[in-house]
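ok, trying the design again with the full structure, not the truncated one.
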């Protein structure tokens, strides 16, 4: 499991609609909003899946920027060394 925390910058007045769209995505939680910034976490199976989810945010109307704050990917099965 990969857990990432991000800050999503929203155009003024779009915060509510962005929050609703984010809640509709599996593995997403919106924790708080301060002015036009939303604090979001992503839970995904792999780093690549987490990146794909975060990258999809830019397609949401009103999203201005996405900033990765923290990522824990030590449990990503795709990064495990092959035992031989």
């Amino acid at each position: 499991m990969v857990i990432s925390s991000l800050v999503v910058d929203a155009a003024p007045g779009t915060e509510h609609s962005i929050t609703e769209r984010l809640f509709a995505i599996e593995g997403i939680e919106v924790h708080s909003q301060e002015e036009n910034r939303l604090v979001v976490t992503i839970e995904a199976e792999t780093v690549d899946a987490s990146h794909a989810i975060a990258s999809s945010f830019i397609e949401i109307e009103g999203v201005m920027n996405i900033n990765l704050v923290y990522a824990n990917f030590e449990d990503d099965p795709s990064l495990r060394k092959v035992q031989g």
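Keeping the full-length input from now on. Residues 2-79 form a domain with the Alpha-Beta Plaits fold (CATH 3.30.70.920).
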